[in-house]
Amino acid sequence: MKTPHDFSGRVALVTGGASGIGLACARTLASGGARVMLADRHAEPGEAAVAQIRQAGGEALFVPVEVADPASVQAMVDATVTAFGRLDIAVNNAGVGGVRQPVATHGVADWQRIIGINLTGVFLCLQAEIGAMVAAGHGGAIVNLASILGSVGMAGTAAYTASKHGVVGLTRVAALDHAADRIRVNAIGPGFIETPLIARALADPAMTEHLIAQHPIGRLGQPQEIADLIAFLCSDQASFITGSYYTIDGGYTAR
Ligand SMILES: NC(=O)c1ccc[n+]([C@@H]2O[C@H](COP(=O)([O-])OP(=O)(O)OC[C@H]3O[C@@H](n4cnc5c(N)ncnc54)[C@H](O)[C@@H]3O)[C@@H](O)[C@H]2O)c1
User: Fold this and answer.
1) Has residue 145 got a pLDDT over 90?
2) Ligand 1 center–CA 128 separation, angstroms
3) How many Å apart are CA 224 and CA 206, to the nearest integer?
4) CA 91: distance to chain centroid?
5) What is the predicted pLDDT for the residue at 98?
6) What percent of the chain has pLDDT over 90?
């Protein structure tokens, strides 16, 4: 779907761009004229996504990244600036789901892996992206993927919930630290969205029913609905919005 926002002349970087919300976001930004760098740990679906965007008339490239690795993240941003000459928009979307374990018996290795990708990964991306934007001096817009679990909890999801609460706080501080550099930083909190991330839950009809029942609107979300909010926050129409966190959850957190 073509976005109503004009991103012509802008360069956008989307982590986790090979699947789900990241893929919808990359396609949406490209439809508005942005040149898009898709970054993901999985090259094959990433290259396929690039081909899809090009077929639709957009401009895109793929770069492999492991967002928990500082050198890999810096190489991703360097590759974007080398290929496209600048960086205006970044969507820090790469993330993994949690394990279901109560706090008392939560595996420490699971905790470190999930925090390492979902929270430290966003921190490392912010550092490299903001570094490039400050060096160029033209400002920018960044959106971080939190979750409804950035504002409420869910039993058995300690690492995931802590990582997403962390992303909300980190977003606010990054916005404060770099407002004077004209870099806007916001976070969004989706409810349950139909992507491969929740495929295991969706394979169980009873679990699917249970999840739908948590969303007063009566269904789960679609990746495009999340991409449309991200595109707005990256656009000039959101020029007064920074340091904010928006849930987009069919009423999940309104109860
Ligand atoms: N799907 C949901 O219900 C939902 C709800 C709230 C928030 N989110 C968040 O939205 C974001 C995207 O989720 P999605 O549902 O599209 O998931 P997805 O699994 O469809 O896509 C995630 C992408 O991130 C990539 N990725 C994962 N770890 C990576 C790493 N360490 N380095 C580089 N790439 C990595 C994966 O390869 C994949 O392509 C995540 O941050 C997730 O926590 C999802």
Assistant:
1) yes
2) 20
3) 25
4) 5
5) 85
6) 98
Picking from 78, 100, 247, the residue whose alpha carbon sits closest to that of residue 160 is: 100
- Pocket around ligand 1 at a 6 A CB cut-off: 16, 18-22, 40-42, 65-68, 93-96, 117, 121, 145, 147, 190, 192-193, 195-198
Residue 122, both tokens = 């966003």
Which runs of consecutive H residues, i.e. helices, occur in the chain?
A: 20-31, 43-55, 70-84, 108-115, 121-136, 158-178, 199-202, 205-213, 223-234
Burial letters for 91-124: b for 16+ Cβ neighbours within 10 Å, e otherwise?
Answer: bbbbbbbbbeeeeeebeeeebeebbbbbbbbbbb
Q: Report pLDDT digits (tens) over 48-102.
A: 999 999 999 999 999 999 999 999 999 999 999 999 999 999 999 999 998 899 9
The encoded tokens of residue 212 equal 């739908």
Over residues 144-168, mean pLDDT? 98
Structural domains of the chain ordered from first start: 11-246 (3.40.50.720)
Q: Which of 142, 136, 216 is nearest to 174 (CA)?
A: 142
What burial class does residue 140 get, using C-beta atoms within 10 Å of its C-beta: 0-12 exposed, 13-18 middle, 19+ buried? buried
Model pLDDT for residues 8-26, shown as the tens digit of each residue: 999 999 999 999 999 999 9
Cα–Cα–Cα angle for 213, 219, 221, nearest 5°? 120
Q: Which of 21, 25, 52 to mutate to test the pocket of ligand 1 (most atoms within 8 A of CB)?
A: 21
CA of 137 to the centre of ligand 1 (A): 30
Neighbour tally for 216: CB within 10 Å:
11
